[in-house]
Amino acid sequence: MDITSFSHESIMKGLDSARKESVTKGTGVRVLFSPKRITEQNFNEVCSIYATISEDDFDTVVIIESHPGSAEKKLPMPSFKYLDTQFGRVHANDRLRNDFADEDDDFFINDDAFDENLSLQHQLLMLQSVLNDFSVLSIQITDENSFIIKELAFAIEEILASKNALVVCCCDMEQGKIDELRKVVDSVVSGNMSAVLNYLNSDISKVDGVGTFITGLMVAKKWDLSIEFPAITDVKGKMISPIYGYAALQRQSILN
């Protein structure tokens, strides 16, 4: 059973439980990494990352996901004006969509890769349970070439830097690949971006949505965020996807 079968009450209960254990509230989370499909198996882990944000934290959410080869355009953005879920209507941020379309030739308002199987549908239900009111922008990656990923990351860094926006990156990794996840994150944290791009261009990645994953990491590094993946330090045997995490403003030490 996936999240589209969950009641609003059951999602709120999961979030409330996660908040009791969370130590990140109020630390300035700007990027979330969430599994593409939210199910009974990973619901508690997804709640743990969505519990890091509060109801008035953001007025816009940018949801990024990969669909290699699904459209001719490299970075299509669906043209919908709004989306309806069982929890209500969410409007698209048309102005922000046009900002990206004006940024570079690879951004297009195009519906070729837009279908009902998008992770967007799953993430919206979580977002509607944690945020009071927000608009959404969906960006799809149909070509995970390193040039395209760097272009996307740069546009996000520049356009969203001063905006009250959350970035949600949807991706999965094969179970048991914690060492691979740790290696990639460590490369980003240490600033070894050539290793990260080599990983992106290789055939060794076990990430479903590797372009989305690397985009989120690059943005977090550019914004000087602290990158946290609970799976790296808290491995659980029942875990289906270890890619759930967040990137937040780094805590500053208080000098006496």
Features of this protein?
disordered C terminus; 256 residues; 38% helix; 8-stranded mixed sheet; 9 helices; two-stranded parallel ribbon
Question: Gist?
Answer:
This protein is 38% helix and 21% strand. With 256 residues, it is an alpha/beta fold.
Can you characterise this structure?
With 256 residues, this protein is α/β, with parallel strands linked by helices. Helix content is 38%, strand content 21%. It contains nine helices and twelve strands. The chain has helices at residues 8-21, 43-50, 94-103, 120-130, 146-160, 178-189, 193-201, 210-222, 230-233; strands at residues 29-34, 60-66, 75-77, 82-85, 88-92, 107-109, 135-141, 165-170, 172-173, 207-208, 225-228, 245-249. The strands form three sheets. An eight-stranded mixed sheet has the order 4-5-7-2-8-1-12-11, with helices on both faces. Strands 3-6 form a two-stranded parallel sheet. Strands 9-10 form a two-stranded antiparallel ribbon. A hairpin with a 2-residue loop joins β4 and β5. α1 (8-21) packs across α2 (43-50), α5 packs across α8 and α7 (193-201) packs antiparallel against α8 (210-222).
Walk me through the topology.
Layout: H1 8-21, E1 29-34, H2 43-50, E2 60-66, E3 75-77, E4 82-85, E5 88-92, H3 94-103, E6 107-109, H4 120-130, E7 135-141, H5 146-160, E8 165-170, E9 172-173, H6 178-189, H7 193-201, E10 207-208, H8 210-222, E11 225-228, H9 230-233, E12 245-249
Parallel strand pairs: 1-8, 2-7, 2-8, 3-6, 5-7
Antiparallel strand pairs: 1-12, 4-5, 9-10, 11-12
